[in-house]
Amino acid sequence: MWSIILHGGAKTITEEDATANRAGCRRALEAGAEILKNGGNCVDAVEAAVCVLEDDPTFNAGYGSARNADGEVEMCAALMEGASFNVGAVAVAKGLRNPISVAKAMLYEEPVLIAGDCARAFAAEAGERLCDADAMNALPKGSAHEERGHDTVGCIALDENGRLATAVSTGGLEGAPAGRVGDSPQPGCGFYCDDNIGGVVFSGDGEQIARMILAARVIQALEDLSPDRAVEAALTHLERTGGEAGGIVLTPDGKFGWGHNSEDFAVAFASSAHPDPQIYLRKGKTSRG
């Protein structure tokens, strides 16, 4: 049995951008699912899926990243496996072609997170792809489409060995102060993973998600609630801060859950039992096949 769920961000999706969001989520889902179908592991699957999202300028991660207040791109990414609770994360990183691959390279290193220039130095030493920092913003300065909120991307996968992994990547908040770090690379805030309980990934208002440790709340709630109810309960807590978010969940028995209080939330999932992709731009609105 295998399952995979991913998201393209809690955000507003205009009619103009709807097709690109659906297509990007489909390509990413297919990349991760192909690995799982062939007996591959969950870590490789989430990396593959998120790499596709990072390479797609539709999404605020990797190549489509937002600019900070200094006009620079600073990216964050994290990957976690639920067997031994290993975490690899990078923050405020510049010039990484695929930040999630650098996070994966960090997974079994002693540090949980490396930031700034040290993240780029680690990536170079690990043989990961580097690029000019300015190359990671695909949009011209001042363009209407450049108005980006908090559309972090993320993925959770369950492989045939019953292992779970979560992955997140973001280009940050448009116009944020240089050096700003949101929830995305912080375990228990933007993501978490436990093979015995489940995996969770959030996207949304990073400061509010971090303050409410939303991912940790979902993991705790999963012991008593269904995946959907666990996400809904966390979003109810988030309302105390006025924040917006969307979250996805996957349990060890392959059950999906997701929810959002943002206007839209691009989500796609598939499993060995139901391999045809199901793609949503908001709860209740689906595209199959």
TrEMBL record:
<dbReference type="InterPro" id="IPR000246">
    <property type="entry name" value="Peptidase_T2"/>
</dbReference>
<protein>
    <submittedName>
        <fullName>Isoaspartyl peptidase/L-asparaginase</fullName>
    </submittedName>
</protein>
<dbReference type="InterPro" id="IPR029055">
    <property type="entry name" value="Ntn_hydrolases_N"/>
</dbReference>
<dbReference type="Pfam" id="PF01112">
    <property type="entry name" value="Asparaginase_2"/>
</dbReference>
